[in-house]
Amino acid sequence: MHVVHPPKTPDSAGDDDQAPEFLRTYQTWKGSNIFFLGGRFIFGPDVRSIFLSIFLIVVPVSVFCAFVARKLINDFPHHLGVLIMVVVILFTFYVIILLLMTSGRDPGIIPRNTHPPQPETTDQSPEVGPGQTPQLRLPRIKEVTVNGMIVKVKYCDTCMLYRPPRCSHCSICDNCVERFDHHCPWVGQCIGRRNYRFFFMFVSSATLLCIYVFGFCWVYAIKIMHSENVSIWRALIKTPASIVLIIYTFLAVWFVGGLTIFHSYLISTNQSTYENFRYRYDRSDNPYNKGIFGNFKEVFWDAIPASKNNFRAFVKKEPELPTRVTGGNYVNSDVEKSPIDIWKNGPATGDSGGTYGGGGGDLQPHPRQSSWGRRSGSWDLQNEMGSIASGIGYSDRVSGRSSDSLGGSRDVVVK
Description:
Radius of gyration: 27 Å
Number of domains: 1
Structural class: alpha+beta
Membrane topology: Multi-pass membrane protein
Mean pLDDT: 76
Family: Belongs to the DHHC palmitoyltransferase family.
Number of helices: 9
InterPro entries: Palmitoyltrfase_DHHC, PFA4/ZDH16/20/ERF2-like
GO cellular component, one term: endoplasmic reticulum
Low-confidence stretches: 1-14, 323-382, 387-415
Shape: elongated
Strand order of the largest sheet: 9-8-7-17-18
Protein name: S-acyltransferase
Strand content: 15-25%
Order of helices and strands: EEEHHEEEEEEEEEEHHHHHEEEHHEE
């Protein structure tokens, strides 16, 4: 790993051994992402699947240009046959660019906290004896109000924060992602708030490309049929490349075309794939539905929010946490509660990890995490709720409450 040292100051010029080391944020990243060009592009851990996707696009188009479009160049007046090849080449480049824009950008990752939020409740279990300090616990779930409806947000043990509404933890990339839709293995990236638009444009454009190739293969076969006065089947036999492309594009349309139709439905009802499979919102109880026009406007016309992560920023390399001996046991010198203790007090009961989900909380205890390069001490739930409320059309007042161990409630109000 390349280490970048800051410029020496008069105070540190004579003390090289204690000079802090600085790294780029992407070099201290705790997720499973893969970075290229010095942190300018961020991909998922299955980035190699992009090459398979590009192969499945480029090879059929190359066969089409060599064996179909080239034969049709002189079959149309005014040299219009040349446009058949020009259009398919340009459209192929457009589809590949959309694929890279979907795969190589931050999908909406929420930065991790340096430590868990301040606990709000105490453990009142009967095992706590007189004179002993009750253990502090974090509530697993908070309730927030979104457009007059109660929405539950979960605590993420890995990222050590309460997720904003519509956020989920991807078990493949190991990140909490805003408006998490799913992790797509074909693009090797999570699909979230910041790249969903490009993902939909990619699958819909790939559908049109398949229809284009499929249609002109039939045009070429029909021209052979008329020129040689044979049946359509004999004409197809004379162009085996067209037969292969017709079968291939027919099968591909069922896949990418089905995705296009499905996501058109999701956009019209303002749902994500994860929400559709998990919650199955009806029209009456979806707190995010703004009507068909408002839902499409949110995806295609609203400005894409800036990334919450500056992957190329310099951050100080954090030293390992010191330990001290207390009663024969090694414990962190930090007085705050570690995620392992939180896990022991109450395992998470969140979402199961998978292609379409991320854990609501990991059932495996995690060591104390570093800040991922963030300089701030913690991620503020209230401020983040307020900013997200203004960004995606929540009500002006977003209130939250969490249940403590005694069944009471504690209100958190964000204006």
